[in-house]
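Side project, low priority. Logging it here so it doesn't get lost.
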Amino acid sequence: MKLALHCNEKDMHHSIPSRAALLLSLVLSSACGGAELKPPSGPGAGEGTALPVATAPQGSAPRAASCAEPTLGPARKREAGIDAFLADRPREAVDLLTAAVKSDPRDRAAEAFRAASVAKLNETRARAAEGAPALRRVPLETIPLAQTTRQKVETAPGKVRLEKESETKNLITNQLTPIARRRADTLPAGIPFKLGSEPLRVALVHADHVASIYEGTIVIAAEGKRMLAFDVKALTRSAPRPLEIPFAQLVGKTLLVELAYNGYAKESGGKTGYFAAFDAATGALAWVSDPLVANAGEAIVSGGSIITGYGFTAEPDFVFVLDLETGKTEQKIAVKSGPEAIRRKGDRVFIRAYDTDYVFKSTTGLPAPLPANLTAEATTAAAPPPPSAESRCWVRRATAAILAKDARGVEEAADQLEPLSADRQLRELLRTEAKKLSSGTRLDLQSAALVVAPAPPWQAASPGASAARPPAASPKLVKVSSRAASPTRDMNPWFIAPIEQGKLPAGARADIPSTFGQEHLSAIIPDQRPGNTNRSILVYGGRYLALLEDGAAKRVLDLDAFRHPPKADPQWKEFAVQDVTYAQERDGVLYVCNGGGSYAKEVYGKKGFLSAIDATSGALLWRSAPLSPTSCSSFDAPTEAPCRRSRSTRGRTRSSSTAAACASRRTVTSSISSFADAHREAGRQETVATLAPPSRPRGTGTARA
């Protein structure tokens, strides 16, 4: 199941105050960007509670002290995020503080306030979900499975008449056009992920309200207005195959919904792809459209018209204009593939189909629809008062103390804020940070030096080869034995699958941070040499490498410049990131593998490098040629013999050997230490033994459904 937040028109930022029992502080995210919507995750999820470290004696108030302004370096996003946190705008705070942490991964204050903002956001959603059972739901009628008009709908004046202006072939996967789908990483603050036991499916942001679609309920909410809720369980069972509701909008006193399933029309005898209109007060059906007119999950309501689209694999694809008054089809325009996004700008309609972008002009303009008819909320929660100058000063003192790892300074700020602020999350944040700083036992990556490696050449090079001394003789790999092994057996080093992000594998030290710079931990690589159990490397997001020794972080290298080839096929650009897949350190030299993410042809052969980097300065010592048999594109588990990848040349499906599927860990006599020793000399290319994995069926591509 995918969770999506769609914005039909402009990106916007609203705030919907709480109702006594439901949906508090609805803040519409101003970021409707290109990402698949998922529930918030990261270092702050579920944290923020700790026992007090230092409090005043029971029954007494903390000693009042004058707040002297601390000296803080410029950090605009962090300070704006903290302001949003204090003003109870947690959605905005999370966005700003996430950006602050990404720009400076060592900003522990931004990380701490981000964690507290996530906790406050989750708490807001939890309170909203608690009130769900009290919300009265209006049941919507089932629909007949052919066009029917029982009652005309009130509309704004004006009708739409479309004329095609242009069509342009798109790259299918690209997200660069102005009509590409806009999604958000997180939900508005007051929209819970569940309404009782019903998971949220889609949240649609309209000009004057938000339509949240749950498994069996639609909720309409707007700032300062009473919410409406509709029971759609019976409605979705109207057809031979259960229907889904990907779109809803309140227009005047009429609720519009799209009803379709993700599948071929023939599976239900063509009974899918409807638009229907209901009386919002009673749930009575006003009209239903013809079938097979809507499954895009987006629509434009303009004046007395609705612009929709329908299409599916091996089925005819069309754009439709429906009469909002009766539901009848007024215009039907053939397109080359199924419409996926329908947007407006001025009097133009931009439609992104699966493989073609269309621009239509309405010869009659695109008038606004009737506004949503919602009654005013009887009582509206007052916004919290802004923090006083004294209170804000102590928050800045706390920020400075967190940055300085000053536990006593954090405790002092917490004590002084006790009578000044009623913000429980702020108090818990400061007590938790004071406890962390006092213990001094956690692995601290943020105190380690951050070394940003400069961009490397995208070819064989040896700018600092003399620093990596060549061995007296280059060893040759000789196969000693091999044996069958399970592709899913446990491996050391640990490679963490995306579905396991945020979790530590069994046996790993418990204080390893799950993220650094908002990049998830992707690998834990111990030193493979006997007697070096005190050294290891943490890989975050294929970008950051944290070098650990004797339980502490020596430094963190930022290898983002090594991930982005100078040129990539635009169609597959989003897959062209060449993440760090493996690394080992020997005698102050870091040997790094970059690969994965794309076919070689998609980055014009610029992948599969092995690089030797000065582990202290980040300077490049040498780099192999791309796609070399001794480079990283040739193996998955560098502690074993290199493995070839089986690739499909059709579609995006590929069958590639995984880190665990190459061969037994003891297949060869050498680990990456001998591999690296054999190639310290710049430009030197040795022939090494290669063990191909068992043959596997090649992929045949994936059909669009």
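Brief comment: Residues 108-130 form the longest helix (23 residues).
Revisit when time allows.
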